Amino acid sequence: MDLVAIVLLNHNGQHLLAKFLPSVVQHSHPHRIVVVDNASEDDSIHCIKQNYPQVQYIQLSSNEGFARGYNLALKEIKARYYVLLNTDVEVTAGWIAPIIQLMDQSPAIGVCQPKILSYQDKNKFEYAGAGGGFIDSLGYPFCRGRLFDTLEEDKGQYDDVKEVFWASGACCFIRASAFHELGGFDEQFFAYYEEIDLCWRMQRQGFQIYYCGQSHVYHVGSATMGVINPYKTYLNFRNRALTLYKNTPTPAYRWKQWLRIILDLVAAVKELMLGRSRHCWAILRAQVDFFRLKSSYEPPQQPDTVNNVYQGLIPFAYFIKKKKKYSALDKAKLYPLVKALP
User: Which residues contact 17 (CB under 8 A, 6 or more apart)?
Assistant: First the structure.
């Protein structure tokens, strides 16, 4: 069994592999690198064979998305730690050692992410993960360094090691035994929110999620599906609703469901007013499909023991109270959101 296996999921990303795989090869020795190809129609596999003989690859017969694609591949890869890495990430020297050392010292840590900065503007945090991920009472995700579309400049304010709620699927280190114990990602999600759901389920089983600012990478973001994509909008709204439902104890969920629906309908109206009717329809379709799929889950019945949830609504704090940075959020609602490593 390998100590570390770095696993990249690829779909028609030959141009990304050509650009970013060299940094992975350069800065990841002696660890195993595996590219999982989600039935690409370009020359991704040929690119790997010709230019990176030291990189292994697994070919899937169809595009299984992020969730099932990784589930299938990780069943075949034996390692103590999986590093799930997007193909649009540039890694840096020494990016692996601090996190592996942290997880070796703390067996309760199930998932850990590095600092994630923007590839386009390397002085700023990147949307997907930034300085560690959190959620609010309705499952809206946010990060230290990123609230909605407002990105903070990196001034060393998050060069720490802290417990967080979720780690970014763009680059995260996962304890393999914990991953398989929980059955991996929820394959019904296809893509988006599957890492938040996994981190939530891990915490309910007693594992911790951490951020390690001593390691950093640079992420392009939305390189596969694109930023403005109605299907991405659909997946985000549907999967957030499913994540909230399947991880929230029934008594606490009732009021959250109706408030979530109202806010999602407000978002749909906003998209329509902006002339983005396809995104409006995507949000509405997400609501319909949520109710169709929810019967396949059985929410927990016991009170939730997960503490690291912001006791408020991020949309209200951001859009109404104009709180644009993590540091501006109500500290009373954050506690005990972030806890230092003992």
Answer: 8, 10, 35, 44, 47, 48, 87
